[in-house]
Amino acid sequence: MGLVERLVGRGRGTRVGIFVDGPNVFRPEFDVDLDELREIAGGEGTVAVARVYVDANAGSGLIQAAEARGFEVVTTSGDVDVKLAVEAVEATVDDRIDTVIVVSRDTDFKPVLEIAAKRGLRTVAVAPGTHGRSDALRNAAHREITLQ
Description:
The chain is of the alpha/beta class. Helices cover 40% and strands 28% of the residues. The protein has a six-stranded parallel β-sheet with strand order 3-2-1-4-5-6. It is globular, with a radius of gyration of 14 Å. It starts with a helix and ends with a strand.
């Protein structure tokens, strides 16, 4: 798939990776719906990678809900941000995806979107709500979505 097709054309042939920053989006002040996240990813193409990153304190209800909706749950005792960023960049450089979606309010993921865009991938930043929106992520992405 060529650069123009990756940036402009979205469809079945487009492989999508969605990477969800659990500790930053699954908070009481945000009402994040896992089904809506899958819908967003599916609207960009065929979901090739769907991961929710959580820390060791994540509740079993969240883990079960994510797995039931087709997300792989990655639990880490270390920094969730580092694990998510490394795996998102790996998927980008290994040519496993054509579109990278980062669901977070953390500006630490700006380099992930920049690296993906530099490699010709389409980038999408999803914020958990207006209050949780990162202008840096919005500005780095080709498309930004703020959940209501």
